[in-house]
Amino acid sequence: MLDSSSCKLILLIVITLRCPIVGQAIFYPHNAVVCERCHNVPGKFGSSLMTVERVGRRSREAFTPVAEGGIRHRLGESASNAGPTQITGNRVSLSLFGDGFIEALGDKEIAGNADLQRRSSLEILGIAVSAPVLEGIGGPSVTQVGRFGWKSQHSSLLSSCADSLRNELGVRNRLYPDEYPTHAPGESPTPFDTPNPRTRKTELDRLVDEIRHTAPPLRDQNLARTEAAQAGEQLFDEIGCAICHVPTYKTLPPGTLINGGTYRVPKFLGNTVIHPYSDFLVHDVGTGDGIPQAAKPEYLDQSTANKFRTPPLWGLRFRATHLMHDGDTPSPEQAIKRHGGDATKVRDRYQLLSPEQKQQLLTFLSSL
């Protein structure tokens, strides 16, 4: 999630501190030293086939993550052997394109999706997650409707990026300042994100600002104009896919205060119509692995253990394989067939379509 200059800074930090990536013995947990390692399709800030493994234990119907938030880092040994009660699950890297617009959506609009679903006849029970705004005025007790992450566990881009900066790149910051539980006493501290003396901005601030300026993924307009794609879009709505993969929103007016009073929606994001194809709610669609996630341990909601945020479908054409939360689904059609739980009736409606209609719907998905 960082540009080349930021990556050079972080690499300089880890070299200075003699991180194991350059052959020394000191262990600083991280999955990568550059954001592009996991966010590179179709370009910087996109998705990828990379996954992060979540690890924890279940006892008395409650999940407890192992050290470092339950993330198994690829460099080092952050995840200990949890024994017979160990639970593991993979999480695919999500695209960050257009996340500034998603951040600028109103809470009521997202929460209202749950009300609409309960009034339908499809037995869909999406839940709006109340997630902390870690940077909010008054501290993390400020909450907002979650919208980022596989569990909608983050409600602001600053909170989400701060989490990734610490837990994926191994750089502590003002929202995640604590040292790692596995850090050896007496060793040099892990890198900490401090303000640039000239700009007074931290790398976290600069990163969030850059993501807020990314445009949503563009559709394949040539394919979208075909009769097949247009027919498929109509079927997408008719069989109920659009009840969870909500096509259209309008962002809040410019100047609206969000994120616990810390951020005003700017002109370039406000009053903009977007088409993310998600309700940003969490659902049980039969693919759960028993692992809840939260911005911080004190916000861990066990009720989300088998639920996942509806992934936005914009940009789907850039990743036609390794779909759903764990990347184990090879194609959009297989993803549809894998849906159960809340999506059972919609999946069954898809199965009743003719071969031609199924192909039309898949053509529409290929245009997103």
Give an overview in words:
The structure is a single chain. With 368 residues, the protein is an alpha+beta fold. It has one domain. Helix content is 27%, strand content 11%. The strands form five sheets. Strands 1, 2, 3 and 4 form a four-stranded antiparallel β-sheet that branches. A two-stranded antiparallel sheet has the order 5-6. Strands 7-10 form a two-stranded antiparallel sheet. A hairpin with a 4-residue loop joins strand 8 and strand 9. The two termini are 23 Å apart.
For the largest beta-sheet, the strand count, sense and barrel status come to:
4 strands, antiparallel
Mean pLDDT over all positions = 88
Radius of gyration: 21 Å
Strand proportion = 5-15%
In short:
With 368 residues, this protein is an alpha+beta fold. It is 27% helix and 11% strand.
Give structural attributes:
368 residues; alpha+beta; four-stranded antiparallel beta sheet; 11 helices
SSE layout:
Elements (H helix, E strand, L loop, with lengths): L3 H13 L34 E9 L2 E4 L5 E2 L13 E7 L6 H5 L3 H12 L11 E3 L10 E3 L11 H11 L35 H10 L8 H4 L2 H12 L2 H4 L4 E2 L6 E2 L4 E2 L8 E2 L7 E2 L24 E2 L22 H7 L5 H8 L3 H12 L2
Antiparallel strand pairs: 1-2, 1-3, 1-4, 5-6, 7-10, 8-9, 11-12
Helix pairs in contact: 4-5, 7-11
